[in-house]
């Protein structure tokens, strides 16, 4: 009994660690193919379509007895979820990744929990009690994390690792070959600025997706089915956008084994199983818990980036990442302390209620 309770308690954490490893590999593959010039929207359309094909049979047989009725309201929420999580966020991340580096891109993922926390406050999904240590820790963690994000965005600093510029030069050549990317900067600083703006926007949109997913998880608690529908809508959205902005149909042809592997892996694992796992964790432990595992992706990706992609490491990225991660875990400490206090209050309330019932029965 104790082992089952321990497993249920830690299952979301173990699942998020596995998802982070999968997403780290996915990010490295994505960086490789966007540097080769693959159309961003074509890539999103392919990976979303593959997710639908892979997950649809699982969703049908696994959830056919427990699946609630699909109302028009739920369909609208899933369509919006696809737009936020599967189309806009992915496009902005790819644009940011192409103009910066994969490690820098993953550093911005660490800001998502803080943005999620700030956006959750007006909707009552998160609260702040400044009289308690947990409330003050949440506010302090937020400020430290935002400060780290600003340092990441505004300060590049000296280069700490001296790797060849081949990957960055390749990216600049292929940036102009991507018809959807009408922003074709010529200098490294311009590319870095455009990439940073795209990443900031993607993190805001991604945080919105977490909040929307928390609502969907309550009204339509079927991770596989909701992910299939979301990816289906995402495939349609990205396909229509690609056809509307790019009449070069040859961009739909995948070139080489790397692009084929990247599309299959990111479709099945990156957009399929990972979305299912994150939706499950949001339902079990909330959006902030799920978003809090971003730093692990950055650590794994940094190892791959320097060893395989020869990415560039700058002082501003290191200092900013340290501040972001420190602020994140101050925030999580406050969140955890608040959760324990809430459980203690519930236990005390239950004990008081039982004592009142016993007193009434004796009377």
TrEMBL record:
- Name the GO cellular-component terms: membrane
- Keywords, sorted A to Z: Membrane, Transmembrane, Transmembrane helix
Q: Where in the cell is it found?
A: Membrane
Q: Which GO terms describe its molecular function?
A: transmembrane transporter activity
Task: Look up keyword Membrane and say if it applies.
Answer: yes
**Into which family does the record put it?**
Belongs to the drug/metabolite transporter (DMT) superfamily. Plant drug/metabolite exporter (P-DME) (TC 2.A.7.4) family.
The protein's name in its UniProt record: WAT1-related protein
- Organism, by scientific name, is Papaver somniferum (Opium poppy)
Q: Lineage of the native species?
A: Eukaryota, Viridiplantae, Streptophyta, Embryophyta, Tracheophyta
